[in-house]
Write a structure and sequence with these properties.
8 helices
Length: 259
C-alpha cells in the first residue's frame, strides 16, 4: 500500500470533529488528502483543523438535518478546493436503550433526521458536485453492525442504520453510471464520545464488552480501525468496490460464539 493513498484528493468528513470522524480526518490527511471537517461541535472541529494545519484541514459548521446548510458545505468545499473527490458521511446520533413498548417517536424522528436524512442530503449534494466536475468520486457512510442484525443497539438507531444501508445500495445503483462508488463501513461497539455519552458508560467498559462479544480475540476495536477501513473504501485501492457494507466487527455479525 502506498504512503499517500489520497494524494490530491479533496474530502468532506461529516461528524469529523470527534470519534471515528476525527480519526479519519487525521488518517486521511496523513495520506495526502485535504479535508473539510463538517460538524456542529465548533470548538472541537476548529481545534482539530488547527492541530493538523490549515493547508490540510479546515472546519465548516453544518447541521446535517438542514439541507440548505448541507448544500452550502459542499459549495464551500468546491469553491475552496475546486472539486470534491470523497464524501465520508459519518455524522450520527444514538438514543438510550428502551423497550419498543416505550418508543419515543419524537426521538425516533431526531435519529432518522441525522442518521438517514442527513446522509441522504450529503449524498445528494456531494454527488451533484462530483457529476458537475466529472469526478469519479467515492462516497462512504458509517453504518453499523446494527444495519445487518438486530438486538445490538436501540430500536431507533437500528432502524435508521438499516435504512442507511438501503440508501447506500440504492445510491450505488444510481451513481454507478457516473463512475461514483457508494459503500458503507460497519463498526461494532467503538468507545467513541457518541457511544459513551449516549449510553452513559465508560470507554473501558465499552471496549471490554466488545472484546467479550466479538469472535476475534486479542485486539481491542478502536476508532482508528474503522478509519483505516474507510480509507480503503475511499481510496483507489477499492476502485471496483461499490454497494458494499464492510464490517469492522471482529466477526461478530457472522460468527456466533458457543457459550
Amino acid at each position: 500500500m502506498s504512503g499517500n493513498r489520497l494524494d490530491g484528493k479533496i474530502v468532506i468528513i461529516t461528524g469529523g470533529a470527534s470519534g471515528i470522524g476525527a480519526e479519519s480526518v487525521r488518517l486521511f490527511t496523513e495520506h495526502g488528502a485535504r479535508v473539510v471537517i463538517v460538524d456542529v461541535q465548533d470548538g472541537l472541529g476548529q481545534n482539530l483543523a488547527a492541530s493538523i494545519g490549515e493547508d490540510k484541514a479546515s472546519y465548516y459548521h453544518c447541521d446535517v438535518t438542514n439541507e440548505t446548510e448541507v448544500q452550502k458545505a459542499v459549495k464551500f468545499t468546491v469553491d475552496k478546493h475546486g472539486k470534491l473527490d470523497v464524501l465520508f458521511s459519518n455524522a450520527g446520533v444514538i438514543e438510550p436503550f428502551a423497550s419498543i413498548l416505550d418508543l419515543n417517536l419524537d426521538e425516533l424522528d431526531r435519529i432518522f433526521s441525522v442518521n438517514l436524512r442527513g446522509a441522504a442530503a450529503f449524498i445528494k449534494h456531494a454527488a451533484r458536485a462530483m457529476v458537475e466536475k466529472g469526478t469519479r468520486g467515492s462516497i462512504v457512510c458509517t453504518t453499523s453492525v446494527a444495519a445487518e442484525i438486530s438486538g445490538t443497539a436501540p430500536h431507533g438507531y437500528t432502524a435508521s442504520k438499516h435504512g442507511l444501508l438501503g440508501l447506500i445500495k440504492s445510491a450505488s445503483g444510481g451513481l454507478g453510471q457516473y463512475g461514483i462508488r457508494v459503500n458503507g463501513v460497519a463498526p461494532f461497539g467503538v468507545a467513541t464520545p457518541l457511544v459513551c455519552n449516549g449510553f452513559k458508560i465508560e470507554a473501558n467498559v465499552v471496549e471490554e464488552n466488545t472484546l467479550a462479544s466479538a469472535n476475534l480475540k486479542g485486539i481491542v476495536l478502536k476508532a482508528r480501525h474503522v478509519a483505516e477501513a474507510a480509507l480503503f473504501l475511499v481510496s483507489d485501492e477499492s476502485a471496483y468496490v461499490s454497494g458494499q457494507n464492510l464490517a469492522v466487527d471482529g466477526g461478530y455479525s457472522v460468527v456466533k460464539l458457543l457459550i
